[in-house]
Each structure stands twice: as C-alpha cells, then as structure tokens.
TrEMBL record:
It comes from Mesorhizobium ciceri. This is Aminotransferase. Belongs to the class-I pyridoxal-phosphate-dependent aminotransferase family. Pfam families: Aminotran_1_2. Its EC number is 2.6.1.-.
Length: 388
C-alpha cells in the first residue's frame, strides 16, 4: 500500500480545482490579464489596513474571542440594520476564518457521512468538494438556461430531496452565472425547506453586488427567527479583502456555543488585529462598496458590448455578482478553450467545467477590474473568437 492509498477515501477524491489549474498554467506570463479568480484588482483600502496595523502595533496579537471580538459582532449588527433593515443582536454572529470556513462549519453542523446536501449548479466548486470531503453527498440541481436567462425550477429541487437530504445550499446572486433569485423564488425554496424540515445554507456573499435597485433579495426579507437558515458570508468581495480570510455566520443565538466549539477545534479564532480591520470595513466602507459596485456595472456593460458584437458569444447579462458566464459558438470543451485562450490571447478565464453540471460549455470572466484592462481583455477575446 502506498502512502496515498492509506489516506481517507474522501481526501484522495478531493478534486483539483479546475480554476486553479488554469491559474497555475498562466499566472507568470508577461502581459497576462487575469480574469480567472473571483476578486477585484484593488488592494484593501487604507482605512481598513490602517485599523489592522494600529491594532497589530498595539499588541493585539494574543488569543481572542473564539466567536469574534464583541466590537466586530456589534459592527455586523449595525451592517445588517443599515442594509437589511433588521436589528440582530451580536449573539447571532460568529466570526470565521473566511467565507469558505463558514461553509465548512455549516457542513460540520448539518451533514455527515451518507447525508445529502442539495445545491444549485453551475456553482462555485468549493461547496461541492467541501461536502464530499466531509463525507456528505452533494446533489446538483441545475439552473435552467434559456433565451430568457437563468432561472431556478423549485420543483426540480423538490424532486431531488430524499430521506437522506439534510440541507439546501443556495447561492444568490450566483457565482458563476449571476442569477439572482427574486422574492417569489426565495419564498418557494423556504416553503419547501419548512415542509421537509431541511436547513438552508444561504450564501449571500454578493448581496451588495446587485445591478437592480439596491441590494439583492435575501432570505432575511421573508424568513422568521426560527427558520432553519445559516447565513454564510465573507469580507473578501465587498471590501477588497480576499487575502485576509475573514468571514462570518449569522445564525440563531441558541447555536452560538455549538459554532464556538466548532471554531475551537478548527481555527481557534481569527487574529484580533485582522478583526479590527473588519470592523473598519463594516463601519466606514459603505461608500467604498458603492463605488466598487458602480465600477463593476460599467465593466459588465463594456465587456458585454464588445463580446456581444462578435456574434459568437452567448450570455445572459448578469443581474448580480461580477462574472460573465458565456459560451462561444462552436466551442464545447471549455477546459481546452481556457488553456488555448491563455496561449493565444493572454487572458485568464475559468473554464465552465470547473463549475459542475450545466456549466461545461461556458467560460467565466471576472469583470471586477479597471475598465482599460477589461476593454483590452474583451478585444483580445473577440480576436480569439474570430480565429477559433
């Protein structure tokens, strides 16, 4: 038996990220325009880094509150009051070591070996993989795609539920499709979860990156305090903090100790000086977020205009998040296409094969970058399409 054969089956089966495979292939190329990852191009703003630096210099480097410092949990309360019109006490928030950590903790709490968790696909691949590593069975329900855009058929979700189903994972606005659930769809999903006694893991990380009027619809708009919903979120996208690895869970206050225990036995908490930066992000960052959303809107419209004019790109203009998920007429193998685009266009895209069922023919472009780069990348892609 080899060393790898002696590892857990779930660990051995963990897939290589289809996104990272392309990133590793092209990241060092001169002149590369990297639109493969889900992040913007701006560094964390000074009002956040200064707060963290001040705390670091002041000696806030010791063990801290497992569930997050009170100041940060209070700042989360203020954030939800401003953006969601809801007054939640600090006891409803748990600070985690990233949005990914929040998802892992939610899975730890809800699903184990043999349990099933239903999710909407195409989807960010990390949830599917994390569920599998936990020993649970991820069950994909594909979003519908037509000339009218992406939509969710709740009857398909209902049909996927078995006696082993423990939870539904709902990401809206969606990475990678940009699909954004309306209140009617959210209500139907919530009614299904209530009827089947299922939990919902609500990934609403892109709520503020919404191109309608104000933030995107949320389960918080329709849920009661006793509904079985875990809200997972991150500081990464809104405040240009992808490298910080700080997130949170909003949950019922009766579950605080359970999640504190899970943090104790995973990360043992987030560094306090980093949490000081997160406080500044929440309390001082609304204008920064609004500027980033408007910048992304302009970039979205620019790239859609250029690629749409080729006559070969097929897409729905995304309602939320900051990705264009598009097909190219005649191209069916998006993984091969992504590597070819690196070689011939010097643009980095994520292949749709990385996002599971329903995404195989698509490519994902992150347009959350400055406009001149987006314009140049779009023209390079248009040229590649002409010759592909």
């Amino acid at each position: 038996m080899t060393l790898i054969d002696s590892l857990r089956t779930e660990a051995r089966a963990a897939p290589e990220s289809g996104i990272v495979a392309v990133v590793n292939y092209g990241r060092l190329r001169e002149g590369m325009i990297p639109l493969w990852a889900g992040e913007g191009d701006l560094p964390t703003p000074a009002f956040i880094t200064d707060a963290a630096s001040k705390a670091l210099a002041g000696g806030e480097t010791f063990y801290t509150w497992q569930r997050g410092i009170p100041d940060l949990r209070q700042a989360l309360s203020r954030y939800y009051a401003r953006h969601f019109g809801k007054n939640f006490p600090e006891e409803e928030f748990i600070v985690t070591g990233s949005g990914m950590h929040a998802i892992q903790l939610a899975l730890d709490a809800l699903a184990g070996a043999g349990d099933e968790v239903v999710y909407l696909s195409p989807a960010w691949p990390n949830f599917d993989a994390a569920a599998g590593i936990a020993g649970a069975v991820p069950v994909a329900v594909t979003l519908d795609h037509s000339g009218n855009g992406w939509s969710c058929d709740v009857e398909k979700i209902a049909a996927s539920i078995t006696p082993r189903t423990k939870a539904l994972f709902i990401n809206t606005p969606s990475n990678p499709t940009g699909w954004t659930a309306d209140h009617e769809t959210l209500q139907a999903i919530l009614a299904l979860a209530r009827a089947k006694n299922l939990w919902i893991i609500a990934d609403e990380i892109y709520s503020l990156f919404h191109y309608g009027h104000g933030r995107a619809p949320s389960f918080l708009d329709i849920a009661s305090a006793e509904d079985r919903i875990l809200y997972v979120n991150s500081f990464s996208k809104n405040w240009a903090m992808t490298g910080w690895r700080v997130g949170w869970i909003k949950t019922h206050p009766s579950l605080q100790q359970v999640f504190e225990n899970l943090i104790q036995y995973s990360s043992s908490g987030v560094a306090q000086f980093m949490q000081r930066g997160a406080v500044a992000a929440l309390d001082e960052g609304d204008a920064f977020v609004a500027e980033q959303v408007e910048r992304a809107r302009k970039a979205r419209d620019l790239v859609c205009g250029i690629l749409g004019a080729t006559g070969r790109a097929g897409f729905t203009v995304p309602q939320g998040a900051f990705y264009l998920f598009f097909t190219v007429d005649g191209i069916t193998d998006s993984r091969t296409a992504a590597f070819d685009i690196v070689d011939k266009a010097n643009v980095g895209l994520a292949p749709g094969t990385a996002f599971g069922p329903g995404g195989e023919a698509f490519l994902r472009l992150c347009f959350h970058r400055r406009l001149d780069q987006i314009e140049e990348a779009a023209h390079r892609l248009a040229k590649w399409m002409k010759n592909a």
